[in-house]
Amino acid sequence: MQKYDYLVVGAGLFGATFAYEAAKRGKRVKVIEKRNHIAGNIYTKEVDGIQVHQYGAHIFHTSNKEVWDYVNQFAEFNRYTNSPVANYKGEMYNLPFNMNTFSQMWGVRTPAEAMAKINEQRQEMAGKEPQNLEEQAISLIGRDIYEKLIKGYTEKQWGQKATELPAFIIRRLPVRLVYDNNYFNDTYQGIPIGGYTQIIEKMLDSDLIDVETGVDFFDKKDEYLKDYPKIVFTGMIDQFFDYRLGELQYRSLRFETEEKNVGNYQGNAVINYTDAETPYTRIIEHKHFEFGKGDKDKTVITREYPADWHRGDEPYYPINNQRNNDLYKQYAKLASEQANNVIFGGRLGQYRYYNMDQVLHAALTAVKEEFK
Ligand code: FAD
Ligand code: UDP
């Protein structure tokens, strides 16, 4: 097998970036992907003139100019700003937690009034160090918002009581004293016009890269290890080692996509259902990512249901708690001792709750390291 310099396992953002950069340096690359399409979780597909995000809403956001310029080589981005709305038993609240939310929740009008209300609510946790997600949320924003906008959503999403979840999960949510519904604090944000799949297509479009979909690395692992001088592996690191140190934990999802014969189903791209009873966490309406595109009498929506993960399911989210992070470190050590011709990358290979910009950054870092 002298034909290829690299085998890349997984045609997602990490694998494709590595393949593109390797080919740019004259290396020959074989890419295998177990799904029947490329692009991993950022895969989008056109339905009725609308790009459907097949694996959940994907909004590109970053403060890293290098990463932003890099991704803009492959697509033009629109001005989409993520501003999800929460539906709690029919009451509608703007997210992230900002003056609009506080005004809707408590009727306050000024930042001083909002702060006074938040401080009053935080009293419950006064002098106590938050030990879990519930306590962290209450000390951050108070009980009213915790009960209506956080508890139900979080317990559905993670399948655990908020009192048993680590506090760090909630630190991702910004709190603002301005009337600004932008979910992210980053400098750059948008959605690629024409979808994400084109980015991966362009990255893999080279005479030096061969791509095969519908191929699982584990069907011929030993042969691949023998035949290829170097492998870039973006699947699950614990599976690579046959779970020999134990299983890392993941959270899975189920997506239910439906075409509707209405022009505008919910009036926003993302609506979160934050009560405990609704079985899904959010509904996305894809046409609202695109401003005026698509059939005016039709729309496509996707409900996102959280699910337990068992072997064979799609591992959408690593669960980065202490136990799993410690176990991951042992796998990473094993990798450096026993698999030094394998680069482990991406959300699953590095077992990190990475956003797209972080995956790109990690892939470009791996490239620099490999070709220094
Ligand atoms: P993946 O996209 O998972 O690619 C890995 C590929 O490897 C997959 O295609 C998989 O099929 C393949 N593979 C695995 N094992 C094997 C094997 N044994 N053999 C062959 N192929 C294999 N990020 C943002 O920045 N903004 C967002 O708004 C955002 N929203 C998200 C919403 C959801 C619901 C989810 C799940 C993620 C979201 N992300 C978001 C994160 C984003 O999807 C990831 O950062 C990115 O797609 C990870 O790229 P990757 O290449 O590491 O992994
Ligand atoms: N979250 C919440 N209510 C919401 C949205 C998010 O409590 O309406 C919490 C929830 O615990 C979630 C975390 O914030 O897991 C991070 O949310 P984000 O939208 O950043 O996650 P992702 O899009 O990656 O699933």
TrEMBL record:
Keyword Flavoprotein: yes
SUPFAM superfamilies: FAD-linked reductases, C-terminal domain (SSF54373), Nucleotide-binding domain (SSF51971)
Domain of life from the UniProt record: Bacteria
UDP-galactopyranose mutase C-terminal domain ranges (all copies): 148-353
Any Gene Ontology CC annotation: cytosol
A Pfam family hit: NAD_binding_8
The protein's Enzyme Commission number: 5.4.99.9
Cofactor requirements of the protein: FAD
Molecular function terms, GO-annotated: flavin adenine dinucleotide binding; UDP-galactopyranose mutase activity
UniProt keyword list: FAD, Flavoprotein, Isomerase
Record Gene3D superfamilies: NAD(P)-binding Rossmann-like Domain
PANTHER family: UDP-GALACTOPYRANOSE MUTASE
Family from the record: Belongs to the UDP-galactopyranose/dTDP-fucopyranose mutase family.
Protein name: UDP-galactopyranose mutase
Gene that encodes the chain: glf
